[in-house]
User: What shape does this take?
Amino acid sequence: MPTNHPVPDHLPLFAFGTLRRGECNHGLLLGCYDRWLPATLPGFRATTARHGFAVVVEDPGESVAGELFFLCDDGYDETLR
Assistant: This one.
C-alpha cells in the first residue's frame, strides 16, 4: 500500500565508521550539521571492502550501529562530496 509521505530534499547522513563523533575523520563534519542521533541500520552488517574501506552489506538478522547526522541545508551537497 503506497504512502503519501513526502521525501525530504535532504536526507540525513548515516555514519558508522570514522565520521562518527570521537573518531579520526569526524572533523570533516564539524560545522556541517545541526544535530545528530544515535542510529541503527537493521538488516545489514559492516565489513571491510577489498581496498580497506568499511562498507555495509545486506545481512538479515544483523545490524550496524552508527550516528545519524542532519546536515545543514547550506553546504549540504558540498558536505556529501
